[in-house]
Every structure is written in C-alpha cells, then in structure tokens.
Amino acid sequence: MIPLSFYLVTDTHYFEPSLGASGKAFDNYMRKEQYFMRESSAIVKATFEKLAADKTVDTVLIPGDLSKNGEIESHKGFLKELKKLKESGKKIFVITAGHDYGEKSRAFVGDEQIEVEGTPFEILRELYADYGYSQALAVDDSTLTYVAEIAPKVRLLAINCDSKGNPKGTVDERLEAWIKIQLDEAKKDGCKVFAMCHYPMIPSVPVFDLVGDAKLKDWRRTASFLADNGVEFIFTGHMHIQSINEYVSENGNKIYDICTACLVGSPAKYRKVVFDGEKLTVESFDTPDCGCDPGNLTVREYFDNKFSTAIQNRILDALNGGKGAVKVLKRAGKKIISGITLGGFGRLLWIGVDKSIRKVKFIDFAGNIGVAIFKGDMPYSVETPEGKVIAKVLKRFRFIVKKVEPKLSKNGVEVNLTEMLLNSIYNNKGFSDNNAVIELDKN
Fold it and tell me: For the segment 120-175, what is each residue's pLDDT rounded down to a tens digit?
C-alpha cells in the first residue's frame, strides 16, 4: 500500500480571548491549570501554520476537547483556524468531547467569572460537518461516532465516547453493536481500520487504572472487542499525557493506544504518524513558539514550570479548610510540606536519601515527578536517586499498602500498588512513549 501519513493533534482547548481572560478570578483559576487558556488561540494558530507548511502530509486527526469549555465563540474561532488549515490542502477529521458542549461556559472579567453562551450537543455535527461528518460512510446519530475512508482501503473509526448518546467515557453495548457492523463491513470491503477516541483506551500509566476518569470504563472489554475485530491502533487524548501502550486480548490479538498530550499546555506536543501496511512510525514534536513571553526561561521551561507550579498548588490547596483541630493539623502540614527538603523528609521516615537530591524541596520534587510522568518515557527507575527514595517510602508504608490493595482489586484484577506506582514513574515497556516504530503482527 502507499504509505499513509497524518498529524495527530489533541485537546486544543481553544478559548476565544475576546470573551475575557484576565483579572483576579482568572489568575486564581489558572493557579491549578496545566494548560494556558489565554494563549491557547495563539498556540493553535502557530501549530496549524506549521502543519499547513508541510505539503508532504495531507491529513490531520483531532480527537476531542476542541474548545476550552464549550463556548460558542470559541468554536467559531477554532473553526476559522480549521478552515485555513483545510484550505492549505489538509483533510481534517475531528470528534468532539465533554469540553465541547454543555452549560459550564465561562469567561473571566475583573474579579468575576461570567457566564457566556455555550454550545448544545445537538448542533456539533452541523458545526463540524466539513471535518469528518460530511465525508463519513456512516454516522451513529446519538453519539456522533462515525466511519470515514481517509485513504484507499484505510478507514477511520472515530469513536465518540463522551456524548449525550452514551454514558461519559464508555462504549456501551448499543454503540459496540453499531461499531461491529461497521468493522464487519470494512472487512468485507478489504479495508484496514484504525480508531480514534477522546478517552484513552488503555491507562496511560499503570496507576491511572485506579482513576475513574483517566480511561474508558471497562476498558479491557472494549480493548478486547476492538482487537478481536481487527483494530490494531487507537489514537486518544483526554489525559494530556504522552504515552504508547499495548494490550493483548484473551484471544491473543493486540491493540496499541497512542495517547497524545494537550497541545496548549505542558508537555505541549503533537505527533506525526506514518502507516505503511507493515509498521506504524510515531514521531512527536514540541508545539511551536506562539509569541508568548517566557522571561528568562526557554519556551519549554516556561510550559513545564506552569504545570509543575499547578501540581504544587493542587497539593497545597488540598491542605486548606477544615475546622478546629483538623484545620490546625492541615495548616501545620501545609507549612511542613512547603518547606521540607527530601533530606528532611527522609529523616522523618528514617530512610536514606542520596546526597544529590537531599536539598531538593519535597514540593518541587512532587511537581517535577508529575511533569516527567506526563512527558512520557518516565526516567525514574529504582536505580536512580529519585526512584530509590520513592521505593523506600513505599516499603516504609508497606503495612498500609497491603491493607489498601484488596479494596482496590476489582473485577478479578488484583492490584499490586507498589509495582503499579513504580512502573508509573519508569518506562519499562521496551519502546518510547514519544517516538516509536510499531511492527504489525503479520499473522
């Protein structure tokens, strides 16, 4: 077959800045956000200009969360950018997700959040008709899931798992039956099928299997269903993380989930994918400089610093509130966590900490670990100073971990929490989360 290549861009969270993105309320809201809201439109424009300039690739996939929070003006602004990208010669296929419709559309003016016009789910198909739906061979009207032939004998199954037509983050039995018809039709026509979906099919890192909103519900069943019906790849977003994972069904069929980070916040990536019939080649790129002022930092440092600070603020804010003794304890805990170093933390728990990281503040360490996990290719094996201290902490609290594990084990899947956490900070999969060549099963 002629190699098929396309760009993969996820979670653009486009916000129309003229709605209002400044003031005290805005600054307070952004303290805990991973991505840039005010700059999102400029980031999208710069990225689309980069894609338009590449005349060797004519297809772009965008699996959901197109707008910040369903503001109709944000959709209008994003559609203007899609139109320019399409006019450059690109075929564009999108699906929508939870941030693209509903009644939570807000902007920020002065000290207040203000309500702005949102977008009903019922008009999304019309809004994005030129970006998948008008080219579709079949559309499931209730969810806006569709199938389109994006190259000769290659079809895209665009699964909308975050719609009014099925429970959030699910592929229910009715939608699964509809998909089965489309996959059988593709097989009959001799077509290869791959999928895209907003939610990750496979947890991006092992510990995310414990987080309800981090992946499709009952993901093993859905992954097995797709793998057993000939789908070998699915392209996802939602978790704002770089990851590539594989799953093998009980019948021995394999599916890969290529999850791509949020475009407009750390790690701020997009991907190029090339499929030649025998292998899938995945390459990741940083979002281009959008004209923001990073001060004395590089653009990448500026993005990562924003995310690290957001993680730290979430941790510290969790120690606010309460009454009486609880409030006093939380306040004391917040003070300790804000100032304690890893060396001091180690002394509290009677564990050794490598001298290379003893002076690192605990709160900075937590932020850096979080950023590293979302960048993919997590570097902290138990041979590194960081990995060693995490392993020692888990060992110190093993008596608690053992009590928690049975409660986390569900549906016949036993949880080894220590192994799960350590494998979440270290990539032991044998291939990169960012740049990989995946060979197809010739059988």
Answer: 999 999 999 999 999 999 999 999 999 999 999 999 999 999 988 887 899 999 99
Under DSSP, is residue 130 helix (H, G, I), strand (E, B) or coil?
A: helix
At 161, list the tokens: 């798992």
Burial status of residue 134 (CB atoms within 10 A of its CB: 0-12, 13-18, 19 or more)? exposed
pLDDT (tens digit, 9 = 90+) per residue, 261-312?
999 999 999 999 999 988 999 999 999 988 778 888 888 899 999 999 999 9
The residue range of the domain holding 387 is 299-424
pLDDT tens sequence across 404-413:
989 888 877 8
CATH code, domain with 184: 3.60.21.10
- Do 130 and 279 share a structural domain? yes
Judgement on whether residues 327 and 264 belong to the same structural domain of the protein: no
Residues 6+ apart with CB under 8 A from 265: 13, 33, 34, 35, 36, 240, 303, 306, 307
Q: Looking at the structure, tell me whether residues 280 and 392 fall in a common domain.
A: no
Whether residue 168 is found in the same domain as residue 254: yes
Interatomic CA distance for residues 68 and 78, integer angstroms = 10
Token pair 């291939």 is at which residue?
A: 431
Do 200 and 253 lie in a common domain? yes
Residues 278 and 334 in one domain: no
- Shared domain for 327 and 286, answered yes or no, is no
What is the model's pLDDT at position 442? 65
Query: Do residues 146 and 182 lie in contact, with contact meaning Cβ atoms separated by under 8 Å?
Result: no
In a domain, 429, yes or no: no
**CA–CA gap between residue 185 and residue 193 (Å, rounded):** 11
Our CA angle for 96, 105, 7, nearest 5°, is 30
